[in-house]
Amino acid sequence: QVQLVESGGGLVQPGESLRLSCVASGRTFSGNTMAWHRQAPGKQRELVASITGNLITNYAASVKGRFTISRDNAKNTLYLQMNDLKPVDTGVYSCYTMCYWGQGTQVTVSS
Q1: d(CA 16, CA 98)
Q2: Model confidence over 76-101: pLDDT tens digits?
């Protein structure tokens, strides 16, 4: 069956960086749009960034210039490089494609 497994979350201080990974298994998604979402405590889940099969990217205004989404189709893996992290970036980050969701990885930004 299809699985999306995220990793790379953790506890960091403001201004630090993290790189999230999402490995897909069960089928290939090389031609499909993939995305990262996040959900902060007490808030609705929001789209952070997406990338199409043609490598066209889109970012939420709050992360533009700080986050970079990328993919390695040979490895069936989606990435999210997060720089200059802020406390408002805290949340559970999940990858999504073709109606499939990963279980999420926790990112906490705190001094």
Answers
A1: 31
A2: 999 999 999 999 999 999 999 989 99
